[in-house]
Amino acid sequence: MELDIQCEEMSPPRWAELLTTMKSCKTIRLDDCNLSSSNCEDLSSIIKTNPSLTELKLNNNELGDAGVEYLCKGLLTPSCSLQKLWLQNCNLTSASCETLRSVLSAQPSLTELHVGDNRLGTAGVKVLCQGMMNPSCKLQKLQLEYCELTADIVEALNAALQSKPTLKELSLSNNTLGDTAVKQLCQGLVEASCNLELLHLENCGITSDSCMEISAVLRNKSSLMDLSVGDNKIGDSGLALLCQGLMHPSCKIQKLWLWDCDLTSASCKDLSRLISTKETLTEISLIDNNLRDSGMEMLCQALKDPKSKLQELWVRECGLTTACCKAVSSALSTNKHLKVLHIGENKLGDAGVELLCEGLMHPNCNIQSLWLGNCDLTAGCCATLATAMATKQCLTELDLSYNPLDDEGIRKICEALRKPSCNVQQLILYDILWSSEVDDELRALEESKPEVKIIS
């Protein structure tokens, strides 16, 4: 049994009712439920008496250190079989880390610990690392985003990595590590026996200076499939260094996030070579980089290569215009693997989307999710979009937010949604003005087709 409740204020009668249900639950998720330390005392009792409980998710609650202390009493019970513990943004401090260290040291069933968005600090996470080094600890996933970590944490992390071959996922995003610490971390990862699959280092103060060391991790850890270094000032020179590792035959990268990395069209030559030759690569995010039309055209040429297996391409806010849309359309009509295209916040205009739709309607195109928010679209392109919606049955998600489509455009989209051949299940229409009559039409459409969700 699974209990999954979000954003609900817990009255005493409601909480008592849920406690009865929890006694037999395998999964309990109570994010944003205004829980406090007193609720944790009850949850500790549930943990002690429900050996089938394997996942506990309590994100965004004011549990505090006292609440975690209650939870850990249950977690230290020999009958506890909890595998996944989520405590993100729970108002924890370094004081919680000693208690959690005891759990890591004594509870081999625990494989996931998510404690991001808490003020644990470097001193607190050093204590957690001591728990990780215990032979009984079998942790596979550790999430430490927004934990106020500094460069001083790396020595303790490297020691934990050396002793923990089970670790597969490490997220350190949004901590002020800097290049020197990231270099040390990467050297530790190369030497460690762990088979890391995911490494997230977003907004960690990285520049091109540490990209050679990250590249070495890519070359030496064939297990690494998910790398995120977004929101770092890597630049074109840093990307070139990363690509040396990414292009290495032993690198098996699948997901690569490079959003807001100060990249320009100069990087697109390396990125194109990566997309066209690295058959393991299925997802790449280049959001908020100044790629321009010339860069996008190079990426599209790579997408047309038979060896490209890319399924998701995120190029939102990349300085694109109508000029690149013919190339995008050609890529859509050639690439059978691409399923998700996020190209919003670019000045494509009606003419650009008309071109995109030509590729979208090609038999080879298998796009499922298309995001065109804030692309300077008007009602003028909606007839063509409506035809694509009604024709392309693989298309299940469409975002047209922040475009002045007005009543005329929305009505054309509604006509497409009513057709039995249209398979769009999620239509996103944020910040678009329409009349009350059109609003009634949208609500009636949702009632007649309950599988369709219109988000506005």
Task: Characterise this structure.
- The protein is of the alpha/beta class.
- Among the domains are: 1-148, Ribonuclease Inhibitor (Leucine-rich repeat, LRR (right-handed beta-alpha superhelix), Alpha-Beta Horseshoe), CATH 3.80.10.10; 310-455, Alpha-Beta Horseshoe (Leucine-rich repeat, LRR (right-handed beta-alpha superhelix)), CATH 3.80.10.10.
- 41% of the residues lie in helices and 12% in strands.
- The protein has helices at 12-22, 37-49, 64-75, 95-106, 121-132, 154-163, 178-191, 211-220, 235-246, 268-277, 292-303, 325-334, 349-360, 382-391, 406-418, 436-448, and strands spanning 2-6, 27-31, 55-57, 84-86, 112-114, 141-143, 169-171, 198-200, 226-228, 255-257, 283-285, 312-314, 340-342, 369-371, 397-399, 426-428, 453-455.
- The protein has a 17-stranded parallel beta sheet, with no helix packed on it.
- It is found in: Cytoplasm; Nucleus.
- It comes from Cisticola juncidis.
- This is Ribonuclease inhibitor.
- Pfam families: LRR_6 (PF13516), LRR_RI_capping (PF18779).
- Keywords: Acetylation, Cytoplasm, Leucine-rich repeat, Nucleus, Phosphoprotein, Repeat.
Q: Which terms summarize this structure?
A:
41% helix, 16 helices, 456 residues, alpha/beta, single chain, Leucine-rich repeat, LRR (right-handed beta-alpha superhelix), 17-stranded parallel sheet
Average pLDDT over all residues: 96
**How many individual β-strands?**
17
Strand content: 5-15%
Shape, per Cα inertia axes = globular
Keywords: Acetylation, Cytoplasm, Leucine-rich repeat, Nucleus, Phosphoprotein, Repeat
Protein name: Ribonuclease inhibitor
Subunit structure: Forms high-affinity heterodimers with RNASE1, ANG and RNASE2.
Subcellular location: Cytoplasm; Nucleus
